[in-house]
Every structure is written in C-alpha cells, then in structure tokens.
From TrEMBL:
This is N-acetylglucosamine transporter. Keywords: Membrane, Transmembrane, Transmembrane helix. Pfam families: HGSNAT_cat. Coiled coil: none annotated. PANTHER family: LD22376P (PTHR31061:SF24). InterPro entries: HGSNAT_cat (IPR012429).
Length: 376
C-alpha cells in the first residue's frame, strides 16, 4: 500500500483507460439477470466480437504498456535484473493466487474448483511479457509477437485433435478444448461448460501477444525522439493497420475471444491502440482532463476492485435468504425486491450492474481521498 503518485508523473490517459476498462469488466460481469442482457453487454456466442469481448484484451494491452513504464528505465541496470525478476515473479504469483482464491472461496473444495481465470491469465501474461521485455533485445519483440500469432494459427488449423480427428475450431472439439480436458479435467474448468474454458491453457499463448502489442505501443509512448503529435499519429497508424489485418485474417481464422485467435489479437489490439491514442491526445496533449477523475479513481486500484468485487458478488450468490417461502440468494433477494418490480427485464438487469459499479466507485473514492493505492 502506498500514497497515490502525482498525476503529473503518470500517463493520465493510461490510468483513465485502465479505469474505464475495469469498470466495464465489473459492469458486464454483474448483470441483475443473466437471461436478460442487452446484446452489447454479452459475449459473442462463439465467432465474432461484441464490445464486451474487447474488455479483456484491452486490459492485457494496458498491462503491456504499463510494463514499459515500470521497467524501461531499469533495462540498463543489468546488475539488478535478478532482483527485478524476483519482484515480477512475486507479483505474478500473487495475481495467480488471487484468481484461484476467487473460485475457491468460501468452501475451499480443492477437488472441484476452476483453475483458469481472468486474473490467472493476467498473471501469466504479465510474467512472460515482463521477462521478455527485460531479457530480449527490443527489436526482437515484434518478431516474437508475429511468431506467436502465426504459430498459434498453424497449431489450431493443422494439428489433429486426439480422440476426435482433424483440426477444427469447434467449441468442444478444438485442440485447446482437448488440452484443457486432458490436463485439468472437467472438475477444474469453466462451470458453464465443463468441456472447455474461455481462459484455457493453449489460448494463453496468443494472449501473451496481446500483452506484447501493448509493450510495442508503450515503446512509442516512451520514445524521446517523437513529439506528442507524432506519438498519436503512429499509435493510430499501427492500430489501424492491426485492425485491418485482424479483419482480413478473420476470413480464414475467425475473430473469437474464447479461442483468443490471432485475428482477435490484432483486431482488439488495434482498437486498443486507437482508443489509447485518442485518450492521450484529448487528456495528456490537449489537457482536457476535467472528466477523468472517476476513471482515475477506478484505474489506480484496478486489480483490487476487480478481485474484491468478484469475491463479494460470488458471496452474494452463495448466501441464502427466504423470500415468500422460497430460498434465494442475497443477490436475487435484493434484485427481486428493488429492481425487477420497477423496470423492464433488460433495464432492471443493467440497473443492477450500474448500481454495483457505482457502489464500488464510492468505496474507491474514499480510498483515493485517503491517498491509498493497494499494489498487487
């Protein structure tokens, strides 16, 4: 825990982008009723990309940019690289452990709990990308990025799937789904499927490329040879090129969040780069920052609010109460009492989600006013 840094020492647009992203994560993860959700707030059933599908890759892109800001000045300090690696490893282990804890509590049934997850994937991406940033020559990072995307594509379309047959991109029959079942068994996969996991093992490989995309764009931000205007232009250019390549690759390797396809990496990474460039131009270059405070408040404690809000939401679904002779969860009790009777089904569902985001904003605002940032 430490005092909040002066905003002048931070890339304010990055904090805002992080805050928008984590607030969106909490919003889409906590509808009042999962059977009544507006289409943009749902994930694609399989191929395709909704606004909700962009949230996680945006966050991994932000992780990559943040690695540059955290470690760029340490590249030349070769004597202390082992110390930096130890720090990176500890942080990744804590993130991974928090992800496991979210699924273990409150029963701690080690025989039946999900091992993959959002925080677990963030931990792996952070660890691998930070190590690559420290240990690999900077000009080779782009090559590694391309190799990952092409290698994953070839694996998914060429390697036969054991117990099934030829390579395919089906939900339960693709190579990644088979690997998840083989290594983790159905007891440790996503509860909604039991046969595959949207944060599965093989899909973590291209998600590392999403983090590398952020590093590559972060290097532009840190460049001393480029003016602020040039940085914006290049972020837009590279973002737009990636976006177009993603759309082109989609024709034969469909954009798919659950598989984290190579086309999805480029498509989402391109949009993330364009979005951050726009925020950077508005906030850091032009100085229009009056609207940023709520998002900064979310951004500086992003992992903390994601984890704690997830634990609270899970607890509210587990704890039971009696309602008109029926046993329902605390969450359902509050929703049925105060939201469902007063709105249409979809509006009630989104009103609950917005309320959840606002309640956590109030908690984070108190932390911010007290100068508290919990570093994970």
């Amino acid at each position: 825990m430490q005092a909040i840094q002066s905003e002048k020492k931070r890339l304010l647009s990055l904090d805002v982008f992080r805050g928008i992203t984590v607030a969106a994560m909490i919003l889409v993860n906590n509808p009042g009723d999962w059977s009544h959700i507006y289409a943009p707030l749902e994930h694609s059933d399989w191929n395709g990309c909704t606004p909700t599908d962009l949230i996680f890759p945006f966050f991994l892109f932000i992780v990559g940019v943040s690695i540059v800001y955290a470690l760029d000045n340490k590249l030349s300090d070769l004597k202390n690289h082992n110390t930096f690696i130890l720090s990176i490893s500890k942080r990744a282990a804590i993130l991974f452990g928090l992800g496991l804890l979210m699924f273990l509590q409150p029963y701690f049934d080690f025989a039946h709990f999900r091992i993959p997850g959002v925080l677990q994937r963030i931990a792996i991406v952070y660890f691998v990308c930070a190590l690559l940033f420290l240990k690999v020559k900077q000009e080779k990072l782009f090559t590694i990025f391309i190799i990952i995307l092409i290698a994953y594509w070839l694996m998914m379309i060429l390697i036969p799937v054991p117990d099934f047959g030829e390579a395919n991109l089906g939900k339960e029959t693709n190579l990644g789904a088979w690997l998840d079942r083989f290594l983790l068994t159905e007891n440790h996969l996503w509860i909604n499927s039991k046969t595959w996991d949207p944060e599965g093992i093989l899909g973590t490989l291209p998600s590392i490329a999403s983090g590398l995309f952020g590093i590559l764009m972060g290097k532009i931000f840190k460049s001393k040879q480029k003016t602020e205007e040039n940085k914006v232009v290049w972020l837009f250019v590279y973002g737009f090129i990636a976006f177009l390549f993603g759309l082109a690759w989609d024709l034969f390797f469909p954009i798919n969040k659950s598989l984290w396809t190579s086309s999805y990496v480029l498509y989402a990474g391109g949009l993330a780069s364009i979005s951050l460039a726009l925020l950077y131009w508005i906030i850091d270059v032009k100085g229009f920052s009056r609207f940023t405070k709520p998002f900064v408040i979310y951004g500086v404690n992003a992992i903390t609010v994601y984890f704690v809000s997830g634990v609270v939401a899970r607890s509210m679904n587990i704890l039971k109460v009696n309602l008109d002779g029926q046993v329902v969860s605390w969450k359902d009790y509050l929703y049925l009492q105060f939201y469902a009777p007063n709105f249409s089904p979809e509006n009630a569902s989104v009103a609950w989600a917005i309320s959840f985001v606002l309640i956590w904003f109030l908690i984070l605002w108190v932390m911010y006013k007290k100068g508290i940032v919990i570093k994970v």
